[in-house]
Amino acid sequence: MISPNQLALPLEFPASTLTDTFRDAEGDTDDPPVSNQAPAASHHDGATVETVPAAPAPLHLPPGARWRNVRIGGGGSIGFILRRSRRGTIGLTIGDEGLRITAPRWVTLRQIDKTVLEKSAWIIDKLAWHRARQERLARADAQWREGGCLPYLGVPIVLRLAGACAQSAYHGDVGAPRPGDTLCLTLPPDADRNQIRESTQSWLKQRAHSWFGQRLIHFQKISGLSINHWRLSSATTRWGSCNSKGGIRLNWRLIHFDATIVDYVIAHELAHLNQMNHSAEFWREVDRILPGFEVARDILRQHTPAALPLL
What we know:
- The chain is of the alpha+beta class and 311 residues long.
- It is built from six helices and 14 strands.
- It is globular.
């Protein structure tokens, strides 16, 4: 199974490891937010990510939750939604909405703040990842228009609204696209973004089914392996999967990538027919099916299905 960074990134550890614990009648003490030196910058995918500025409280909080800021080095702070529970661990979860912390009622605010400081490098890194993802999604949404561009087999193609023609038509070599090729959709000039997105994705899924099917036949032949069935997937956290019954799922969004990336995912899932793990033996099997797969693997690790198209 190929699974990139999860959309919500959790971190848990036993609250029992904390010392000097006490609680007041409300379960929260009035300790002031801890101020201490923490890393002022984090590195994500080779880039330097600056410390986040003071975060404003959201307009609406979940029932029983509160907003809290912890000052960190560099003049910034980390804001988070705090909820109390009967759980025995402190849980940190980062998603598109930011950082959420769930903690036992007996753990003090000072201890929670200290935990945030200790994990600040991890928190800042993941917050930056989600912020970049949201920006990519916003850019992708802007492409759903006449003249918009999106990647198809790793090449940018242009969307055109062709009106009431019989079916969507691709102008160029659909098996070897070139920059500037056009996809003419059967939509009127005043079609909205949702219509354009749905029509485009319908065409992309058709192409994915055809392309992936051909490549599966090719790799089964050269590897000597055989699957029972396969189908497209729309998962937001997995590029592909293989079950013990020989069934394979391939994420249709792979059609955005260069063909070498598609080949890697197919080889990866076929290798699971012999090795249902990610052991050294598994990676040797992947290399047997697709020698030199590492470049494609490293490229794919930089992306998540939910953020496409973004190439």
